[in-house]
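ARCHIVE CARD
Drawer: 12
Card no.: 0347
Subject: one protein chain, sequence and derived structure
Cross-reference: see card 0346
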Amino acid sequence: MALRPAPLWLPVMVAVSLLRGSCLGASSHSLKYFFTGISEPSQGQPHFVLVGFLDGQVFVHYDSHSRRMKPRVSWMEKVGKEDPQYWDKNTQISRGDEEVSRAGLEILKNRYNQSEGLHTLQRMFGCELRRDGSKGGFEQHGYEGRTYITFDKETLTWVAPDPQAQITQRKWNADPGWNQRHKAYLEEICIDWMKKYLSYGKETLLRTEPPVVTMSSRTEVEDGMETHVCRVHGFYPREIDASWTRDGEVWLQDTFHGFLTPNADGTYYYWISIQIDPKERGRYRCHVEHDGLQDPLDLELKESTDSKSNLGLIIGCVVAALVLLCVIAGIVVLIIISVQLSLRFRQSEVLLSWEEASQFLCPPQRL
């Protein structure tokens, strides 16, 4: 069974935020599913949505409007060719999850003594195959955007943070055999499905794109210190080791890290910056390691380009000031000429149009 980690009975629904994971080979891989049930969705919105992620990419989707499990990437169409019953089977599973979500919302509204209105029930589960061959798995349920109950697969128990959730905790922990099967799903069945999906999408998910590394710098006016930014972009998979080194050793002091961000084409972007004394510039390097690189990169720091850019800035300001003076002078001339023309032609009632007067303005500078 492709999507179901456990029998369909009381769900009390899942976590909210997307866990980061990514990428067989030297990289790690993850398979995750997210369910969201809403008691009173706004007009046009589904009351139940299921989304599957493989290495952070949406690959399947189900909602209460279509009531069909559908592929979200072209390579998932191979699954249906290999197993013609795959989509029907998983659609039926998802419809069951939808009904359980509805029931779970009603149960929790009563348990928390809540009236009608907007309430959310969420569930998140999945597995991970790490670089070193170790396996991970998780399941978490949430209500109203807060953690409701979490599965600890090491102790084979459910952990509940508040009293209302402890009713569910006692019920689920009363069946050790079910919890054992739950762990087996996360560490075995889920991993097997992940490998199968990766084989279908290997051209996309198992590719490597080497990073492009660029450097920029500036000098701080206040203290003369230099800030250098090392930008790493266009790489896949997402796992990358980027750091500043000083005399060949990783240097964390005065170092700032950006967020690892996906690009529209499926690659990733990252940056790190450091502030240094310009006298010690030669001691520092931007060090980058990635599966797409045959050898690590060590980029030297360049002299701050602020002095050159300042010259350009000064020239630009002078040109802008001259243009502004020209415009002001033109407006003054326009006013004087307009007054003179108005006086000269008042008797003949000849009016000076804006188009005619505009020829006296300073013409725009060619770009």
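Annotation on reverse: Residues 1-26, 307-324, 326-367 have pLDDT under 50 and may be disordered. The CA atoms of residues 17 and 241 lie 24 Å apart.
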